């Protein structure tokens, strides 16, 4: 009996050993199939950072345009280049076409100056533009008296035209 148990244990051990060898061989061939990628060579450059001019629209004062970039360095292949850019047409151009502000609601009308004002804080500056942190704008107040509703004045005009036709 003991010899049969011994033979069964020996067979199990041999099967486990062969399975282990097979797995090792499979892993080794899988790793051998992979090509080792050479690490990218880091280029050391004497070139400086690009310095970009403001965006100049192709036509008008907003829309598509170009900006020029320059950099310095003794071994730079390229020291100047032009890049396409866009100036949004809905931005407040009086504060710089590349500065975007978040504005508060309009304030109350100042009766002395007949102006109302609001303040805007810098939301975004395109391409490292030099922008003010906060800006203030003002505009004339609307009419202080309420205008007559348009519906009534249109009715009166129609009635006047009808009367003219009847007279003719």
Automatic annotation (TrEMBL):
Residue segments, region Disordered: 139-168
Every Pleiotrophin/Midkine C-terminal domain range: 96-158
Secretion signal span: 1-32
GO cellular component: endoplasmic reticulum; extracellular space; plasma membrane; protein-containing complex; Schaffer collateral - CA1 synapse
Pleiotrophin/Midkine N-terminal domain span: 34-95
Any single biological process term in GO: negative regulation of neuroblast proliferation
Single GO MF annotation: protein kinase binding
UniProt keyword annotation of Secreted present: yes
Cellular location(s): Secreted
Keywords of this entry: Disulfide bond, Growth factor, Heparin-binding, Mitogen, Secreted, Signal
SMART domains to which the protein is assigned, alphabetical: PTN (SM00193)
Keyword Disulfide bond: yes
Pfam families given in the database record: PTN_MK_C, PTN_MK_N
Domain of life according to the entry: Eukaryota
Function: Secreted growth factor that mediates its signal through cell-surface proteoglycan and non-proteoglycan receptors. Regulates many processes like cell proliferation, cell survival, cell growth, cell differentiation and cell migration.
Protein family (similarity comment): Belongs to the pleiotrophin family.
Protein name: Pleiotrophin
